[in-house]
Design a protein that fits this description.
The protein is α+β, with helices and mostly antiparallel strands. It contains 13 helices and 24 strands.
């Protein structure tokens, strides 16, 4: 395959105007709180700005977003392996990566209302968006976004450590370790999912921008002449991933960075953006980082981070294509994209039309009564389904209300055990989106669901 060619640019679909309620964001945030997706952190103490806790339903969904990413990026490929690197890291790593010097945002203060802003996020750099005062900003100061701490009991400069602001550096500093142990050769990738920390000046929009968040990053190491091929490949593949997991294509776009937006080392960057209720926002950046990172770490550490290709008898420093996504931010996009309300028999039904791989629970098992013999039958069915799928179990309230609750948390299938089940050993399976119901013999239930939850 000739990998020195570049793919033609992707055509953007027509942007359609959508019938999105003006308060969609409030409704989603409200649902998150009401149903146990996301809670403000330390809420009983008044909350802690911009930090959130993922509740019983949210933790399942966030895990599913990360698992779906891992499945596509690692499990279904032969050219990617994973790692889990430490969050605490020494200054040397960030010195070499350039973060100590360059990972800054321009910060301005309004002298009138004392609010702080990122200068590059202001609509009008002369007007305070909080109090409306003109020409009230201080000179911009560069503010480093990394959280600094001390490792060990002594707060000396020798003990300084940083919480990683991205997972990527863990892959670069482990490049030689992975190369020597995994039997992979370029083009190959190292994937990682985990927490990152940035002391954001203006966190906000719910979990869109927080100081503690989760990332899903791949560093894909390629021979230098294959850089543009793989950059185009990953731009397409990553956009497709969101579509394959249920986000409409016309709510997504791939936005190439203008030349003045590019980092100094980047030979090209494109963002996958989602149409949030307030406008387009980044979900993921795909960057052609050239040989910058490995060269920097080789120079600063003295380690040899080149690769000797025995087939061509050449030694080179691999170029890196990096698709870097946010797990928590993507989860929010999946929630917004899936949120729907419809009229059903004169009542509003709220339903999360989530892709089954992202949905917190795949199946809810609902006995019509909490009495025998339905309890035993329900246990039997749960024992059959639970080893394969995350199942909810709910035995209280009228069945209609239980269905609505499952709709609201996006459960694709409800399995109802009723008194006929005792006689015919069959259950009613209700599908979330169509609300269609089908009678399925217990003996065929696993196969029936497996065919639909692939
Ligand atoms: P932004 O321009 O929104 O600050 P970025 O370009 O600095 O993002 P990257 O460094 O490319 O972001 O990080 C990759 C991904 O990590 C982003 O696309 C986003 O999904 C996620 N991410 C970055 N910062 C945050 C944050 N503060 N809160 C939540 N997710 C974040």
């Amino acid at each position: 395959m000739d990998r020195s060619v570049t793919c033609p640019p992707m055509a953007e679909p027509e942007q359609t105007t959508r019938d999105v309620p003006a308060d969609l964001m409030d409704r989603v945030v409200n649902l998150c709180k009401r149903r146990g997706f996301v809670f403000p952190s330390a809420e009983i103490y008044g909350g802690f700005r911009s930090t959130y806790d993922y509740g019983p339903i949210g933790v399942l969904m966030l895990r599913n977003v990360k698992d779906a990413w891992w499945r596509t990026m690692v499990q279904l490929r032969t050219d990617v392996v994973g790692i889990d690197a430490s969050i605490l890291s020494p200054p040397a790593v960030w010195e070499a990566s350039g973060h100590l010097k360059n990972f800054t945002d321009p910060l301005v203060d309004c002298t009138a209302c004392k609010q702080r802003f990122r200068e590059d996020h202001l609509d009008d750099p002369n007007v305070c968006p909080n109090c409306g005062k003109r020409d009230s900003f201080t000179e911009a100061r560069n503010f480093n976004l990394m959280f600094k701490t001390h490792a060990g009991p002594v707060e000396s400069s020798a003990a300084v450590a940083y919480l990683r602001p991205e997972t990527a550096q863990g892959m670069f500093v482990n490049f030689a370790n992975v190369l020597n142990t995994s039997r992979k050769r370029p083009p190959f990738g190292i994937a990682q999912v985990g927490k990152s920390f940035r002391n954001e000046i203006t966190p906000g929009n719910f979990v869109f921008r927080t100081r503690e968040f989760e990332q899903m990053e791949l560093e894909f190491f390629v021979p230098p002449d294959q850089g543009s091929y793989w950059y185009d490949y990953w731009c397409r593949a990553r956009l497709d991933w969101y579509v394959d997991h249920g986000i409409d294509r016309d709510r997504l776009r791939l936005r190439p960075h203008d030349a003045d937006e590019l980092s100094h080392y980047s030979a090209g960057t494109s963002d996958v953006e989602f149409l949030f209720p307030w406008g387009w926002g980044e979900l993921e950046g795909i960057a052609n980082r050239t040989d910058y990172d490995l060269t920097q770490h080789a120079q600063h550490s003295g380690a040899d981070l080149s690769y000797f290709d025995q087939e061509t008898n050449t030694r080179y420093v691999p170029h890196v294509i990096e698709p870097a996504a946010g797990a928590t931010r993507s989860m929010m996009a999946f929630l917004i994209a899936a949120y729907d309300e419809e009229e059903v028999r004169g009542e509003t039904r709220t339903v999360l039309r989530l892709h089954h791989r992202i949905a917190p629970y795949k199946i809810a098992v609902l006995p019509l009564s909490k009495k025998q013999p339905l309890t035993d039958l329900t246990r039997e069915i749960l024992a059959e389904l639970q080893p394969t799928w995350m199942c909810d179990y709910d035995e209280t309230q009228a069945i209609g209300r239980r269905y609505r609750r499952q709709d609201e948390i996006g459960t694709p299938f409800c399995v109802t055990v009723d008194f006929d089940t005792v006689e015919d050993r069959a259950v009613t399976v209700r599908e979330r989106d169509s609300m269609a119901q089908e009678r399925v013999p217990i003996a065929e239930l696993t196969g029936y669901l497996a065919a639909r939850l692939r």
